[in-house]
Design a protein that fits this description.
By secondary structure, this protein is of the alpha/beta class.
Length: 134
């Protein structure tokens, strides 16, 4: 469901420190879903700290959501695989645009499968904008 006068924007972030770079791309009438993948976890970390890592990512998603100007915002932790986190979110959220906010390692964008047949960056035909935090 699209917000009145707004768009459905899926925000995927690797950090809570990205809201300032996202603000110009999100309007107050937009319906936004924020996903923070549980990233940077090794196999042994996953076995012992899965709950802690999930809670950290969930809190980061909440922090990003609170700082965005949009009224309708849903925020949660996502799969550790950023590509899978995006596709899982798209299964229940009909996005008009995907904003990928990257803090730190810019190579994480390479892990996202973009549509080969579409011009520009797109996932499942949805435009993707990558923004980098300072």
């Amino acid at each position: 469901m699209q917000a009145a006068g707004g768009r459905n924007v899926l925000v995927v972030s690797t950090s809570a420190e990205v809201a300032d770079v996202l603000t110009p791309y999100v309007g107050e009438n937009d319906n936004v879903k924020v996903i923070v993948p549980v990233v940077g976890q090794g196999f042994l970390d996953w076995l012992s700290n899965d709950e802690k890592a999930f809670a950290t990512a969930d809190a980061a998603a909440g922090e990003v959501a609170e700082q965005l100007p949009a009224d309708a915002v849903d925020a949660r932790a996502g799969e550790s695989d950023i590509d899978l986190a995006i596709r899982d979110a798209l299964a229940t959220f009909p996005a008009d645009e995907i904003l990928v906010a990257v803090a730190g390692n810019p190579d994480i964008v390479d892990a996202i499968r973009m549509d080969d047949e579409e011009p520009g960056r797109k996932i499942e035909g949805i435009p993707v904008r990558v923004v980098r935090a300072r």
